[in-house]
Write a sequence for this structure.
């Protein structure tokens, strides 16, 4: 016991002596302590932290040769067979456009493989979350990429033919394709028999031709949507008092009919700041119901009020995201000499070619084979356009949609 106390006393005296001899020995003592702390931290380091470090150093040569830069990709795709644009991580049975895009980005070497399951690491964002079966000719996504050589060709090599990257531009570091987008233009291609009277024999849709006076009435009704309205009845789970239900529409009209595969079609164009889930399809569905004689015109004004109105939802097949607009961004950064304007004039021919090869034929062939519009028209008598039911047919179908889905684009 005496020996132990003597040893402790000697150690105490020795440390005091070192302290009196100034900072040099004290410095080396601290260095030893720091070194030990680092060694202990290394031993106790969690496995996932080791993985994070190694992930950053996975391809050091690639990082030096091809540093990550913020870009936008112009995309076109046919939505048939896909469950919309947005990826559902961990739900592989519902394939989306983003599933195939992310896979192609990894295989081409544009993003690290370990970032594929969490694209937030690449600052990924899309302009519009298109719904199941909806196509796009001008979708834009923003993200950080390694700018490898022949980047677009290499990405497209790993994409199916119904999805294509048609353009790429550098943008500012803080750019977000959804937040910076100040307008979206959609088109909706449909057989004109949708505007036939409700007693018309739809057994021969190829024989129907839209009369000019009916087209004029269609466009007069579509024009009513222009301006700002409360569209809470045109989506699901959205209260009339919710400010986000108010949307601004700048344009909506139906073009001249044209013949395709012996059937007459027409294309509706709508532009607005943003659209809620199913909003465009319901806007079109309600006008069709009025034209066919199932609902009175006054239902449109009533649908913007506080009461719940049963608004039918047209099929998704003919809906196409045509282009997205970045007017404010272009005004601020487009002329600074460092950044390009987010306009796609040079890609216009490629966009047109893709639509003619993949989007229009899919819409026409699917409509003629499956008759989605005709089948949907047969459900219009089920809707109660006079009453203000507390829970409509569409709302029941949308119970599983999350509360925030109503804020997303069609």
């Amino acid at each position: 016991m005496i020996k132990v106390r003597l040893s402790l006393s000697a150690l105490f005296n020795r440390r005091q002596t070192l302290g009196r001899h100034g900072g040099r020995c004290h410095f080396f003592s601290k260095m030893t302590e720091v070194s030990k702390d680092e060694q202990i931290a290394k031993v106790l380091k969690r496995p996932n932290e080791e993985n994070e470090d190694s992930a950053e150093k996975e391809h050091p040569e690639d990082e030096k040769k091809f540093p990550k830069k913020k870009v936008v990709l112009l995309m076109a795709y046919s939505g048939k067979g896909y469950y919309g644009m947005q990826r559902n991580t961990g739900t592989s049975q519902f394939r989306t456009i983003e599933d195939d895009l992310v896979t192609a980005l990894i295989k081409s070497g544009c993003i690290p493989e370990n970032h594929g399951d969490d694209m937030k690491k690449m600052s990924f964002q899309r302009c519009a979350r298109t719904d199941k079966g909806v196509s796009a000719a001008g979708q834009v996504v923003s993200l950080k990429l390694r700018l490898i050589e022949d980047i677009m060709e290499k990405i497209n090599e790993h994409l199916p033919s119904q999805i294509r990257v048609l353009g790429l531009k550098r943008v500012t570091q803080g750019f977000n394709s959804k937040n910076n987008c100040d307008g979206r233009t959609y088109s909706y291609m449909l057989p004109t028999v949708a505007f036939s009277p409700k007693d018309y024999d739809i057994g021969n849709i190829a024989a129907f031709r839209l009369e000019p006076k009916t087209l004029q009435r269609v466009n007069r009704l579509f024009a009513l949507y222009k301006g700002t309205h409360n569209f809470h009845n045109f989506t699901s789970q959205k209260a009339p008092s919710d400010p986000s239900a108010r949307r601004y529409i700048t344009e909506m009209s139906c073009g001249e009919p044209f013949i395709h595969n012996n059937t007459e079609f027409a294309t509706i164009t709508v532009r607005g700041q943003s659209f809620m889930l199913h909003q465009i399809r319901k806007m079109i569905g309600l006008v069709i119901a009025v034209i066919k004689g199932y609902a009175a015109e006054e239902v449109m004004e009533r649908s913007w009020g506080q009461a719940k109105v049963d608004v039918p939802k047209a099929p998704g097949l003919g809906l196409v995201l045509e282009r997205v607009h970045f007017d404010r961004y272009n005004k601020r950064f487009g002329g600074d000499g460092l950044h390009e304007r987010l306009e796609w004039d040079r890609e216009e021919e490629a966009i047109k070619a893709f639509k003619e090869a993949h989007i229009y034929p899919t819409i026409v062939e699917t409509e003629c084979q499956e008759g989605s519009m005709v089948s949907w028209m047969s459900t219009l008598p089920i809707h109660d356009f006079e009453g203000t039911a507390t829970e409509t047919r569409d709302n029941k179908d949308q119970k599983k949609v999350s509360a925030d889905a109503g804020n997303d684009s069609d």
